[in-house]
């Protein structure tokens, strides 16, 4: 009985785990497959017809798609920069400084993450309309919304990294006569940087992918998710799958490069 | 931070937190207030001219009378999807934390990586996977699990499957974070004391992973109950959730007061449920 239990413990869980992982990849596999689909002349856009390279060779063929992609990237870049700066400053305040209202602030940062997107989006819309901006929704209102929902995720990510930091390293630097400024830039910042980078990547993908909040506050501005949503009613162009697959591959390369870089650095430090 | 303190005086903390606090106050708290006042306004206005605040509580009576089935569906679908996510997520998080060995980092990256393909595009691909003449439906028909003309797409099953799929990573990451912290020696100790593997799991691993379970279920249930994308793309008109209604009232009907009332009710419902749940699980410190 004991041995059966052990065997189950050893192999069943990892097998089941890998099955769950495979389940998570079925849609990505389908999207990659459909990016090679020749949909011309077919009315059923949700079935594979014939193989073609065309979609990959002419990714911008569908009207308005690449324009919407550009809008999404612009918004995501600005939102990421602003949210990462505000969020990092706030994390330092929360971890390193005592001030009155600290627990209220923690709650205020937690609340947006516990609010359904539809509620956050509709309350922002209600505010914009009440402020007389109902007719001028667009780039700026989308940006305000995106910075808002990215902010909490940045704080949570950077705060965790900062809290896990060994403060003895900073004390050691000070003992060696480094001043505050040198200690911050040579010790603290490099150690927190991976957290800031992870937060920025998270903010970028949250902003780039957002639909529910954007849809309510966008006016006539069209982001990439809104383009996909709009064309889903008529039948999506296969190039959407090309963008989806390309984004996936690019991010994997970035993650892999970061990982290899980190390992090489660690090896160099170990050999020194 | 002596040098910073020279510039800003004693209140460095305030200066660092101020920009974020201002943003959250101005664009999160004030809008909630605005949502509340809009929900009490006269519905005869329009989005450009604005709405007149008349303290019209009748908006709440109207939407509860008209749309209560949408709330029931939202909470039911989100609840089922959360339980399914917990089962699938626990298996994978457990496998990564205890069984993956040197593949741990790779598997963690693999959990997050599907995110990088736009989730709308991925959700649309379920239309193809669950299609009437697709592999899944035909296999299930051949196995007689599904009737001859049975279908998956445009059923509650498809909506719940979509929700489960979309929010699974939100469950896995908090679960992994709390499982990872468990000292394997505790489990060994329980076995030394002649606990069966199952008992060991139950009284050590599961107990210590409760914070992750609570965090994960909240991160799954909250967004799932407000979602309308899965219901729109994979469901039918009878599987619409409260998000569908709010969205439609805002964008196509332009009836902001009733839409706001629905939003406020959803927010309050979720807050109450979260508070009760967190109390019962004994994990208040998560908030």
Question: Beta fraction of the residues of chain B?
Answer: under 5%
Would you report the number of β strands of chain B? 0
Provide the helix percentage of chain B: over 70%
The count of helical stretches of chain B stands at 13
What Rg of chain A is obtained from the alpha carbons, in whole angstroms?
Answer: 24 Å
At CATH level 3, the topology of chain B is: MetI-like fold
CATH topology of the domain at 63-236 in chain A: MetI-like fold
CATH superfamily of the domain at 63-236 in chain A: MetI-like
Give the rounded overall mean pLDDT of chain B: 88
CATH superfamily of chain B: MetI-like
Task: Specify the CATH class of the domain at 63-236 in chain A.
Answer: Mainly Alpha
Keyword list:
heterodimer, A: 272 residues, mainly alpha, MetI-like fold, 11 helices, 0% strand, globular, B: 287 residues, 13 helices
Can you describe this structure?
The complex is a heterodimer of chains A (272) and B (287). By secondary structure, chain A is mainly alpha-helical. Chain A has a domain at 63-236: MetI-like (MetI-like fold, Orthogonal Bundle). Chain A is built from eleven helices and no strands. In chain A, helix 3 (65-96) packs parallel to helix 6 (139-163), helix 3 runs antiparallel to helix 8 (180-209) and helix 7 (167-175) packs antiparallel against helix 8 (180-209). The mean pLDDT of chain A is 87. Chain B is built from 13 helices and no strands. Chain B has a single domain, classed as Orthogonal Bundle (MetI-like fold), CATH 1.10.3720. The two termini of chain B are 29 Å apart. The longest helix of chain B is centred in the N-terminal third of the chain and has 42 residues, at 58-99. The chains are: A mainly alpha (272), B mainly alpha (287). Chains A and B meet through helix 1, helix 3, helix 4, helix 5 and helix 6 of A and helix 1, helix 2, helix 3, helix 4 and helix 5 of B.
Outline:
The complex is a heterodimer of chains A (272) and B (287). Chain A has 272 residues and is mainly alpha-helical. In chain A, 76% of the residues lie in helices and 0% in strands.
């Amino acid at each position: 009985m004991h041995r059966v239990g052990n065997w189950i413990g050893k192999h069943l869980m990892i097998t089941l785990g890998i099955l769950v992982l495979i389940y998570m990849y079925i849609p990505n596999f389908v999207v990659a497959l459909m990016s090679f689909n020749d949909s011309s002349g077919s009315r059923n856009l949700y079935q594979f017809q014939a193989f073609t390279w065309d979609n990959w060779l002419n990714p911008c063929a569908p009207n308005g798609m690449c324009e919407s992609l550009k809008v999404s990237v612009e918004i995501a870049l600005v939102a990421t920069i602003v949210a990462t700066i505000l969020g990092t400053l706030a994390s330092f305040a929360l971890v390193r400084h005592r001030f009155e209202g600290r627990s209220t602030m923690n709650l205020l940062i937690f609340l947006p993450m516990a609010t359904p997107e539809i509620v956050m989006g509709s309350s922002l819309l209600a505010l914009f309309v009440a402020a007389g901006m109902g007719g001028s929704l667009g780039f700026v209102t989308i940006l305000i919304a995106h910075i808002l929902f990215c902010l909490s995720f940045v704080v949570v990510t950077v705060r965790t990294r900062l809290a896990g930091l060994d403060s003895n390293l900073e004390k050691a630097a000070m003992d060696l006569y480094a001043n505050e400024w040198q200690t911050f830039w040579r010790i603290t910042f490099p150690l927190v940087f991976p957290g800031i980078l992870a937060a920025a990547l998270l903010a970028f993908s949250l902003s780039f992918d957002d639909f529910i909040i954007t849809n309510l506050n966008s006016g006539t501005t069209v982001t990439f998710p809104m383009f996909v949503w709009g064309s889903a009613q008529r039948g999506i162009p296969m190039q959407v799958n090309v963008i989806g697959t390309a984004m996936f591959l690019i991010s994997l390369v970035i993650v892999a490069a970061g990982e290899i870089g980190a390992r090489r650095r660690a090896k160099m430090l170990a050999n020194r | 931070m002596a040098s910073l303190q020279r510039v800003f005086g004693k209140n460095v903390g305030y200066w660092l937190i101020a920009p974020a606090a201002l943003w959250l106050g101005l664009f999160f708290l004030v809008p909630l207030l605005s949502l509340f006042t809009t929900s009490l306004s006269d519905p005869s206005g329009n989005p450009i001219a604005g709405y007149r605040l008349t303290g019209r509580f009748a908006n709440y009576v109207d939407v509860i009378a008209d749309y209560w089935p949408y709330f029931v569906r939202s909470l039911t679908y989100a609840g089922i999807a959360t339980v399914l996510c917990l089962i699938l997520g626990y298996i994978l998080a457990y496998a990564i934390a205890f069984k993956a060995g040197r593949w741990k980092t790779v598997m963690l990256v693999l959990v997050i990586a599907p995110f990088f393909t736009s989730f709308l595009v991925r959700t649309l691909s379920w239309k193809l996977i669950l299609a009437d003449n697709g592999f899944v439906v035909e296999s299930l028909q051949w196995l007689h699990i599904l009737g001859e003309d049975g279908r998956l797409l445009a059923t509650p099953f498809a909506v719940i499957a979509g929700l489960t799929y979309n929010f699974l990573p939100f469950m896995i990451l908090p679960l992994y974070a709390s499982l990872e912290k468990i000292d394997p020696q505790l489990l060994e100790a329980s076995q030394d004391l002649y606990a069966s593997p199952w008992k060991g799991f139950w009284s050590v691993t599961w107990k210590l992973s409760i914070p992750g379970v609570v965090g994960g279920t909240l991160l799954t249930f909250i967004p799932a109950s407000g979602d309308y994308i899965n219901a729109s793309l994979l469901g039918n008109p009878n599987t619409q959730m409260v998000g569908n209604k709010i969205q439609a009232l805002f964008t196509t009907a332009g009836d902001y007061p009733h839409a706001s009332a629905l939003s406020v009710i959803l927010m309050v419902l979720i807050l109450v449920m979260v508070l009760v749940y967190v109390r019962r699980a004994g994990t208040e410190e998560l908030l």
